[in-house]
Specification:
Layout: H1 11-30, H2 37-50, E1 54-57, E2 60-63, H3 67-74, H4 78-93, H5 101-123, H6 128-157, H7 162-193, E3 203-204, E4 207-208
Antiparallel strand pairs: 1-2, 3-4
Helix pairs in contact: 1-4, 1-5, 2-4, 3-5, 3-6, 4-5, 5-6, 6-7
Length: about 210
């Protein structure tokens, strides 16, 4: 349900998240350097494929988000990576919506970016075990934040969506565990073979870097 379709959310909710996404995209693109483009493209393709695979849980379904991993590896560049993936999914597969691109980008990308930034000092340069533990924590917090944001935009649109919002939050429990395990193993592996990949969101020269 992270891919909210068209026709559900109110115009104020769509407009406010559209503005947030536009600002975040501008911020990320301004700091995106050419050397990081291949990495952004690979991670965006991974998000595109992984998030198309739905698993039914009760009356709803969930899919991998990988937002925590994207935030750790890409930093702010995760915002355009998610946005491009969402555009392609909406246009070619009708997955998600066009009018909800701003909302869905905020709900999926920003939690991963912010939690990765928060834990960057403990992940960059860490041992594989430590990087795996903090990577798992970033992934779990990112999924929980996405669930909370989805519930928030639903209830902000109409209180009639309150039951749906509660179901969405509950359905993200198994996903939270799964993403924590996947991201934890991925971060531990990267810390062992390519530790520079985990330096995405760290501060460089007083500015937040994207690669």
């Amino acid at each position: 349900m992270a891919h909210i379709p068209d026709g559900i959310l109110s115009i104020p909710v769509l407009a406010s998240d559209g503005v947030i996404t536009a600002v975040a995209l501008g911020y990320a693109l301004k700091r995106l350097d050419e050397d990081s483009l291949p990495r952004v493209a690979v991670v965006a393709a991974l998000f595109f494929v992984a998030s198309l695979i739905n698993v039914s849980i009760g009356p709803t379904s969930v899919h991998l988000l990988l937002s925590g991993l994207m935030g750790i590896v890409l930093g702010w560049a995760a915002v355009p990576a998610v946005f491009v993936g969402l555009v392609l999914q909406a246009v070619f597969f009708g997955f998600g919506g066009v009018t909800t691109l701003g909302v869905n980008t905020v709900n999926i990308a920003l939690p991963g970016v912010f939690w990765a930034l928060a834990f960057a000092p403990w992940i960059a340069g860490a041992t594989p075990k430590r990087a795996g533990l903090f990577g798992a924590l970033v992934a779990a917090l990112s999924v929980a934040s996405t669930a909370a944001l989805v519930a928030l935009v639903l209830t902000a649109t109409d209180t009639a969506y309150e039951l749906s919002a509660r179901i969405v939050v509950l359905s993200y429990g198994p996903l939270l565990v799964g993403e924590a395990i996947i991201t934890g193993f991925a971060c531990a592996f990267l810390a062992r073979v390519s530790p520079e990949m985990l330096a995405g969101p760290r501060r460089r020269g007083g500015k937040l870097a994207v690669s």
